[in-house]
Amino acid sequence: MITSTQQSIANRILQQATKGTTNNPGLPQLLASFLVDQSAHETNGWTSGFFVNNNNCFGYACYPGSDWQDGCSDNKADNGVTVGNYDSIEDSVCEIVDWIYRRVSDGKFPADLTSITTSDQYAQLLKNSGYYGDTESNYSAGLKRWATNLADFFKRHYQNIPR
CA–CA separation, 64 vs 84, rounded Å? Predict the structure, then answer.
């Protein structure tokens, strides 16, 4: 069972991912729901220092010149890389949405984002794009664990997402 605070965060991530950014359209709802799982996995249920202190939903590295970051944090991800700081959860989500569309442009993600239909497929695409260093099986298992934890939330609030 997830807390009401976690439900609120999950909802904000899903809403922004489906809304899109000033640069790109929103993601399909199923893919957006995978981003919620990814965020929960990357931040240990939205309790990590880089989430709590920096609104960084994905452990995304600091990149000077980012459209969405407002600087670098004092926090580091598990791989020792300094993470970006964001003004809001929504800005952090916009960073990942734009990242996905850059992967579409460079051919690492399919042009038809609705064709991403499983956590395993999403984990593989992230891995092949160099997003994480963990094994694909461990990362995929983390996504699935959060998908299970969040299943009731999605059923109650988003019946039309086929999870």
Answer: 9
Tokens of 6: 């976690």
Q: What angle do CA 11, 144, 122 make, to 5 degrees?
A: 85
State pLDDT tens for residues 11-69: 999 999 999 999 999 999 999 999 999 999 999 999 999 999 999 999 999 998 999 99
Give the residue carrying structure tokens 């990814």.
38
- Tell me the residue type at 121: Q
* Residue matched to tokens 């199923």: 30
* Alpha carbon of residue 71 to chain centroid: 19
| Domains of the chain, earliest start first | 4-47+88-157 (1.10.530)
Crossing angle of the two packed helices 136-157 and 4-19, in degrees rounded to 10: 100
Site of tokens 């939330």: 153
Q: What is the DSSP string of 124-135?
A: HHHHHTT---S-
Check if the beta carbon of residue 72 is closer than 8 Å to that of residue 50. no
DSSP-assigned letters across all residues of 89-117: HHHHHHHHHHHHHHHHHTTSS-S-GGG--
